[in-house]
Amino acid sequence: MLKAGKPIVLIYAFFMLFGGIMAYRKVHSWESLAAGIVSAILLLIGYSLLGANPRKGYTISLATAACLVLVFIERCVKTAGDPKSLGRNIGLAVLSLIVGVFFAVCAKSSGDIPA
User: Fold this and answer.
1) Other CB atoms closer than 10 Å to residue 3's CB: what's the count?
2) Cβ–Cβ < 8 Å for 100, 8
């Protein structure tokens, strides 16, 4: 499970960065761009720690995913009138939740969360 988690962190970081850049290009959303950059940096920090200290790496990645769930839920509330934006934000909240649960399992496997 731990080895499978490493590429997931990297892919998720790229996905968040790419999404922030695309949101900026499409609707000039500085908030999305900043969130994409900050979340990608935090996920890359987590990724860089996975070799030496998987527990810390997955904990940072889990915390980032948990914060993104909250961000996307807030955006769902704000965009409730626009079905396209609402659907995108719900999808990203669900994706972040799934990835966060996966990181929690990896953190537990590495000894981060007591059984």
Assistant:
1) 9
2) no
pLDDT in tens, 64-113: 999 999 999 998 998 888 888 888 899 999 999 999 999 999 999 886 44
Q: Alpha helices, DSSP H only, in 1-115?
A: 2-27, 30-49, 54-78, 83-109
Contact 61, 45 (CB under 8 A): no
Token pair of 15 as six digits: 């996905």
pTM (2 decimals)?
A: 0.89
DSSP-derived 3-state class of residue 51: coil
CA distance 33 to 100: 21
Q: Which residues lie closer than 8 Å to 74 by C-beta, 6 or more apart?
A: none
Nearest CA among 92, 108, 15 for reference residue 58: 108
CA separation for the pair 108, 112 (Å, rounded): 5
CB 43 within 8 A of CB 64: yes
